[in-house]
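A reminder from the course coordinator: this example appears on the midterm review sheet, so study it carefully.

Given structure:
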């Protein structure tokens, strides 16, 4: 019960910070330019700093082998998730223009703006290297398989014309990890050896990620319109896929791997399971618009998952505590 109550309190804290963004947007204090700038600040400055410092302070080079196991689990779970969702869209006869969105929405997570703050609230900054594994795989699959699946479902054309934007494969947050690697190799105690003004500055900037990310999600929810969410058959199936099927698939893969002798740290497997149940990727409506798919459905999916995760996460944490 204590774990459940801790999860509830962590989620309440997250909701309050989201509510600040929602309220300020509703009052007109946060305009469109501010929202766009906030997103850039988080993605290109604060998050790389947070990842860099987390790697230096809480990670050792000999842990890379353990992280590679998480890569395998994450890749397998997402691809199995795509297979299950592909079967679901045909069984339930999901209309064209929603199929690709559903498949990508079920298997693509909002790792940065909700996944990271959530993981830090539940497990602390020590879990960031583990979350980074999910983030890297999630990002690559979204911008390859995910985009292709949505483009293939474009109701206005029979051609699968997909434009791959290669810059998405090395987003700014991943550079925080890449730059940290040389320090881990040649300066293992860099967190204490680097000048204090550098480490303190980077730590303070990185500390902005959690509150700013959650306020940004609050702004998005205000723009989407929570009261306008339509719980259609397609949306309900997507919610089941994202919040129930996806974490169960991840859990089963980890358990199978453990029985085969491929074990990972307890916090690592909890991180992967929680990330498998985070809200759908925030750019889904943008991709829907680009490929002439159902923008309203994509918006409802992002908004609904961003609201309902506050109920799902404490339940998952309670279940994990008894397994």
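Designed residues:
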């Amino acid at each position: 019960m204590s774990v459940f109550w801790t999860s509830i309190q962590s989620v309440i804290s997250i909701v309050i910070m989201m509510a600040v963004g929602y309220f300020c947007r509703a009052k007109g204090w946060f305009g469109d330019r501010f929202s766009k700038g906030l997103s850039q600040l988080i993605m290109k400055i604060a998050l790389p700093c947070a990842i860099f410092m987390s790697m230096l302070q809480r990670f050792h080079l000999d842990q890379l082998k353990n992280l590679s196991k998480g890569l395998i689990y994450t890749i397998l779970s997402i691809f199995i998730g795509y297979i299950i969702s592909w079967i679901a869209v045909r069984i339930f006869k999901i209309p064209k223009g929603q199929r690709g969105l559903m498949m990508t929405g079920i298997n693509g997570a909002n790792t940065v703006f909700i996944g990271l703050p959530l993981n830090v609230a539940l497990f602390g900054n020590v879990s960031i290297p583990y979350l980074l594994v999910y983030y890297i795989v999630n990002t690559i699959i979204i911008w390859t398989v995910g985009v292709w699946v949505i483009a293939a479902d474009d109701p206005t054309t029979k051609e699968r014309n997909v434009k791959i934007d290669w810059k998405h494969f090395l987003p700014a947050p991943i550079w925080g990890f890449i730059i940290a690697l040389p320090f881990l190799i040649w300066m293992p105690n860099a967190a204490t050896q680097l000048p204090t003004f550098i480490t303190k500055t980077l730590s303070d900037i990185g500390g902005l990620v959690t509150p700013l990310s959650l306020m940004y999600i609050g702004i998005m929810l205000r723009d989407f319109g929570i009261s306008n969410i339509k719980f259609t058959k397609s949306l309900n199936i997507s919610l089941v896929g994202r919040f129930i099927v996806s974490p169960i698939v991840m859990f089963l893969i980890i358990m199978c791997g453990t029985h085969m002798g491929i074990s990972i740290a307890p916090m690592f497997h909890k991180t992967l399971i929680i990330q498998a149940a985070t809200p759908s990727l925030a750019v889904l409506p943008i991709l829907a618009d680009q490929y002439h798919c159902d923008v309203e459905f994509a918006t409802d999916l992002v908004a609904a998952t961003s609201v309902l995760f506050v109920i799902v996460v404490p339940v998952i944490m309670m279940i994990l505590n008894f397994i």
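The first helix runs from residue 2 to 26. The chain has a mean pLDDT of 87.
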